Amino acid sequence: MTRLKPILNADMDCQLLYVCESQKSQVESLKSLIAEYKLSIILHTELLTDKLTQKRRQQLTTLVTHPILLLDDKNKLSWLSDGLSVAPEWDKLQRRVVSAGRKSELLLQAAKITADSHIIDATAGFGHDSLILASTGAHVVMLEQQPLMALLLLAEQQRMSTLPNWQKLMSRLHIINTDALSYFESFNKNPSADSSQLIDVVYLDPMFPDDSYQDSKTGKGAKVGKHMQALHQLARPPTLDEEQQLLQSAQSVVSQRGQKQGRVIVKRPQFAPLLAHREPSESWSNEAVRFDGYFF
Question: Which CATH architecture group holds 90-295?
Fold first, then answer.
């Protein structure tokens, strides 16, 4: 998910990449992605000559003080840090993507999109929610502020685009390395004259404090998964002022639809406070998560 302000030091622009012997030819492909999308990353590559077992992967996560990248023998790019090994791994969501519908996905109930919808996922993260949104046939612009995360997404899109069953879905995803507020500002300054490019839904899943996942009184609620633990190493939750700016800017994007209603959908843990303390038009929830809808 894209956060408003990164907490990583600028020194992280020099990124260590471990590469399995069988995939060393793919390093140039990663460098091409970095150049094409103007990511502020310089790769420093080290070849893994020993076998990449689970134990060896775990050792790599504890040997370094900063996040590292790993390109394994299946051409999957992972992020290793502080005992964690995480990757988008979109292929693992195949069953969910194929069966996605309003009955099974709260997000789709809230978004109410169709095959011709245009969506901005302003907080892309590992891209899982973008896949669900795009499974409807909708086109999704994925914003990710962190260059490291953007590279993971781009590499995963490139990998999945080689699989015939995924190519149409991959073609509906457009990944941009930028922060949400800057993108919204640019979008509002240059509104599209083409009605087919107007935005139907802006989806927001901003960072929130660790203690907002569970009810403070009962202890019930969702546990923090490893993907979310990793993202917490990269960024902090937005301040109240930033939340207000984010919601207001998202509103201005969908309000350009004129007579047609646009939606801003905000994902929160079930017990998290409302974004910017603003009451939604409608909410959808289960035991773990809540989607607050703002209609304009």
Answer: 3-Layer(aba) Sandwich (3.40)
AA letter at 217: K
In the chain the first and final C-alpha atoms are separated, in Å, by 24
According to DSSP, the β-strands at 68-71 and 14-20 are parallel
Q: What is the dihedral of CA 242, 247, 252, 254, to 10 degrees?
A: 140
Break the chain down into helix, strand, coil percent, rounded to 5: 40, 20, 35
From the list 52, 50, 40, 51, the residue with the least C-alpha distance to 78 is: 52
Residue whose pair of structure tokens reads 């009605």 in the numeric block: 195
Token pair listed for 34:
């970095």
Cβ 259 vs Cβ 224: under 8 Å:
no
CATH of 10-86, one of 3.30.70, 3.40.630, 1.10.287, 3.40.50: 3.40.50
Per-residue pLDDT tens over the stretch 187-218: 988 866 555 678 999 999 998 766 555 555 55
Amino acid, single-letter form, for residue 203:
Y
Q: Where in the chain is the domain with CATH 3.40.50.150?
A: 90-295
How far apart, in whole angstroms, are the C-alpha atoms of residue 248 and residue 130? Answer: 22
Please, what is the Cα angle at 213 between 212 and 215, to 5 degrees?
80
Span 88-142, pLDDT tens digits: 999 999 999 999 988 899 999 999 999 999 999 999 999 999 999 999 999 999 9
Instruction: Name residue 202's amino acid.
Output: V
